[in-house]
Amino acid sequence: MNSSGNVALPRATHSFLRWCSRLCLLIGLAAIAWCVYFWVDARVDQIVQRQRFDAISLRKDPDPAPVVGRDVLETPKLAIGSVLGQMEIPRIGISLMVLEGDSDPILRRAAGHLESTAIPGQPGNVAIAAHRDSFFRALRNIRDQDVITLSTLTGTYRYQVDSVEVVGPNATEVLADSPQPTLTLITCYPFYYVGPAPKRFIVHAQQLSSDSPAR
Predict the structure, then answer these.
(1) What distance in Å separates the CA atoms of residue 173 and residue 180, rounded to the nearest whole number?
(2) What is the pLDDT of residues 61-105, one digit of tens each?
(3) pLDDT for the residue 42
(4) pLDDT digits (tens, 9 = 90+) for 119-152
(5) Is there a domain that residue 173 lies in?
(6) Strand positions, DSSP E, 54-198
(7) Number of structural domains in the chain
(8) d(CA 126, CA 49)
């Protein structure tokens, strides 16, 4: 006990606590740096993909050059990782590139088109997924009648939101095919849940118009 009446910690204990506090600080800084790296990497990739996609769209080359190692394909059959197009929801500030596939590397850099669903311009249900804590964060503010524009090399397609729902992770019926051209957006829910979210947030939209000839 020191002169002020407080119990003095042994020197070894004091050193250990100081070492632990420094270790925790380093771990926290490393975690922040890791998150910043992935955030910056995803945004830079989006910029590069959009610039290349715009350039190819203006040229309208029959055999376009690869986009950062991924081909932008005009045929309905898309290679995994190729650029499907650009999606915009102006009212809630969403503007992002959409790639073919929904693997972790793809969803880290963009929204992903589910391979088993329709391609824009074809009859059926076009399903697109993205992470709730990155590209689809603003989706929490979407509402009925919002307009979604999906621009591809085969045309530009406009959809209007007609319903929103929350379902379980195994609710595969949201991917069911449709005789009419529709769009389904998928992300995890709740949006601010810590850890793997237990549910899915689903947006359903009907196609309003298209500037592409019917296939």
Answers:
(1) 16
(2) 444 444 443 344 444 578 898 899 999 999 999 999 999 999 999
(3) 61
(4) 998 889 999 999 998 999 999 999 999 999 999 9
(5) yes
(6) 83-89, 94-100, 111-113, 125-129, 147-152, 155-167, 182-189
(7) 1
(8) 21
Tens-digit pLDDT profile for residues 31-51: 665 555 455 566 667 677 776
How far apart (Å, rounded) are the C-alpha atoms in residues 5 and 79?
A: 73
pTM for this prediction: 0.73
CATH number of the domain where residue 91 is located: 2.40.260.10
Question: Which residue range(s) make up the domain with 72?
Answer: 45-210
Q: Which amino acid is at 128?
A: I
End-to-end, the C-alpha distance of the chain in Å comes to 86
Comparing CA positions, the residue from 159, 141, 138 lying closest to residue 149 is 159
Name the maximum alpha-carbon separation found in the chain.
Answer: 89
Q: What is the residue whose two structure tokens read 């998928």?
A: 186
174 belongs to a structural domain = yes
